[in-house]
Design goal:
Its EC number is 3.4.14.10. This is Peptidase S8 subtilisin-related protein. Keywords: Hydrolase. The protein has five helices and six strands, in the order H-H-H-H-E-H-E-E-E-E-E. The chain has about 200 residues and is an alpha+beta fold. The chain has two domains: about 80 residues, no CATH class; about 60 residues, no CATH class. About 10% of the residues are buried.
């Protein structure tokens, strides 16, 4: 059933872009939206179960990116694009040999794909890869600047004060419009989120 579900979500994405009079995404951008917005947990909040091995938690090779999420895929925020020439260069990298004149080749890990896989064959291995993302979200009406982008606490009950500056970003959306967002401080143990309401 995966193919009809994914095909339907792709049709929804293309329909939404057409309805909103926006640039149509490339196939790789749509694929990126599907991959980067998946769920890796089931509806009960548990990791996806691996039915083949009866393992409580399926690894990335068993589940892939995860289960598609149609709502999130319609508005992914950022997308990865791969041009047809990049695929040609990737194929040249796979099939080239010393007797072939190749103008450009790309290794698999350097292909601008949303998921990342790299070989680490030894304890001294080191790899650097590059990715390019495209912002597909309309700029907000308000920009928010923080006096501190990282809070570092060294003792119990320590207090840190930070400032938040709100400024208009372009034209005013009109009286009565409501803006919303959130500010989150994230650590390895906690996420502390403050809802933000803006009245225009």
């Amino acid at each position: 059933m995966a193919t009809p579900h994914v095909s339907g979500i792709v049709a929804l994405i293309m329909s939404k872009l057409k309805y909103e009079n926006k640039r149509q995404w490339s196939i790789s951008e749509i694929q990126s939206a599907l991959i980067t917005t998946t769920n890796t947990f089931d509806l009960d909040g548990r990791p996806i179960f691996d039915e083949a091995t009866f393992n409580d938690s399926a690894n990335i090779l068993q589940r892939g990116a995860g289960q598609v999420n149609a709502t999130n895929a319609m508005d992914p925020g950022l997308v990865y694009n791969i041009e047809p020439d990049d695929y040609v260069a990737y194929l040249c990298g796979i099939f080239s040999n010393n007797n072939t004149d190749v103008q450009r080749s790309i290794s698999g890990e350097q292909l601008n794909y949303p998921s990342i896989g790299i070989p680490m064959a030894s304890s001294s291995a080191s790899t650097t890869i590059s990715r390019t993302v495209t912002n597909i979200t309309e700029p907000p009406f308000v920009k928010i600047y923080l006096s501190e982008y990282m809070l570092s606490f060294t003792r119990f009950e320590q207090q840190i004060t930070y400032d938040i500056t709100f400024s208009m970003n372009g034209s005013h959306p009109g009286s009565g419009v409501i803006g919303q967002g959130e500010l989150s401080w994230v650590s390895s143990k906690h996420t502390v989120t403050s809802p933000i309401y803006i009245a225009f």
